[in-house]
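Tutorial, part two.
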Amino acid sequence: MKVEIEESKLQTAYANACDGVKDFMESLFGKKVFEAAKPTLDDYKTIRTYEDACKALGEPIFEDPNNLPNHIIALMKLETISRALWGRNFQPKPDGEGSKVYWYPWFALWTKKEVEDMNPEQRGALLSATADDGALAGFGYLSASYRSSGAPASLGFRLCQETEEKAKYFGQQFIELWAEYLKFNFTVGNRLK
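Running the prediction step on this input gives:
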């Protein structure tokens, strides 16, 4: 009997295994197969969990002695993961000239069809959660207004990535943490009826 296993699935199993199972897998398949599975700042796709980010950065795993709210803990973990995804050599800095583009994971809470199927009252409740420019949901939104000029900062810079691909990976790979962070005062999975 012949069994075939995709290398990426084998590496994911290895990354999530306890030490005894890792030793067994290394004896069965060889250590070289699993070297790519170790979290590193040189390849963002090796950062698959918050614990991987801590390992790659050489930081301890956060222990909460103060019983912080879950959304704050999730944000702290996302910031750690974001730094690990930036990699070894990338140093993000705000760009006063506006010539640098950064990418942020973007989430849709409703599908286009769900919004179209809403009655006017439901759609009005949804739109009342947006800022007056009609495109922001208010998560982490900052704005300096009522002066001679405005200075909005509508996204959390520490959670941005330097490429669209990394931002997409960040959003999809860590969707549960993002949901925990963004769901403050609402329940993930509830829908308007």
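Residues 129-142 have pLDDT under 50 and may be disordered. In part three we will examine how such features are distributed along the chain.
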